[in-house]
Amino acid sequence: MARQLKAGTSKTLGLIVPDASNPFFAEVARGSEIEAQEADYSLLMGNSGQDVERESKYFYLFQEQRISGVLVSPIEDVREEIESMRSQGTQTVLVDRKADPSICCSVSVDDIAGGRMALQHLIDQGYRNIIFVAGPLEIQQVADRLSGAREAIRQSRGGAQLRVITTKNLDVLDGREVGSQIVAMPPIERPDAVFAANDLLAVGVLQAFVFNASIKVPEEIGLVGYDDIAFAESAIVPLTSIKQPARLLGKTGVEMLIEEIEDPSGHRHRQITFQPALVVRESTTGPSAR
Length: 290
Ligand code: RIB
What we know:
About 45% of the residues lie in helices and about 20% in strands. It is an alpha/beta fold. The chain folds into 2 domains: about 1-110 and about 245-275, Rossmann fold (3-Layer(aba) Sandwich); about 110-245 and about 280-290, 3-Layer(aba) Sandwich (Rossmann fold), CATH 3.40.50.2300. The strands form 3 sheets. The protein has a 6-stranded parallel beta sheet with strand order 2-1-3-4-5-11, with helices on both faces. It has a 4-stranded parallel beta sheet with strand order 7-6-8-9. It has a two-stranded antiparallel sheet with strand order 10-12. Strand 8 (about 195), helix 8 (about 200-210) and strand 9 (about 220-225) form a beta-alpha-beta unit. Helix 2 (about 25-40) runs parallel beside helix 10 (about 245-260) and helix 5 (about 110-125) crosses helix 6. The mean pLDDT is about 95. Bound molecules: alpha-D-ribofuranose. Alpha-D-ribofuranose binds near residues 18, 24, 141, 198 and 226.
């Protein structure tokens, strides 16, 4: 790889994700790595930690190392970084975020459909007073899930209501904190269901309900997560979740990146959007769910 880098003919790809500790991005990385290896490329991964400065440093590092292409799940708009890298011969594909077709390729999941699917399932199960545990609404994936959830509420024609609680991070600890807030509510103010923006938040909410307050899930409060990571199925109450094809996102992103690297002049940018899927488990279908 060092010889390739020196010769400027690096068969090395870069991957930048916002949270390497999130199993969803670990699966995206795995899918990317398998596809890169099959095409005889190496893959280097950087974790931006949801920090724009760190993300920019990885863009600079990969450009400086003459990496052939970068797959990035961006924090914010990275149009300038993409154009700068392309001017130096490094291609970019967005993963888990839809790109403007004039800028680059992208592979993503329809998170509006995913949010709508989660709420429609809860409404179909008889839940009516629902809280969306959001994480930061600045994250486009989270904002899209909320948009879809609100569409389902509108279509329920007043049959259901949605409150939103935002958190700083999309992790178990912040989920546990919100779960504790819900436990502290007078029972009359508690929701009858929670939709969490990802499975890590949902697992934290579940821990607060089961360990701190013995709130029965799903009998007293139903719970839906998002991503369908392995912890969803193995949670103390198996979690209903919205499945994202994480490995396929990584695989497809690398395929598109290598296509452009190997034929930049003949390449036309594409936006591939996969559909999420509802995976129903005990956390919304317990013995006496509504
Ligand atoms: O980055 C936050 C979330 O957005 C992840 O859990 C995954 O769902 C991604 O799409």
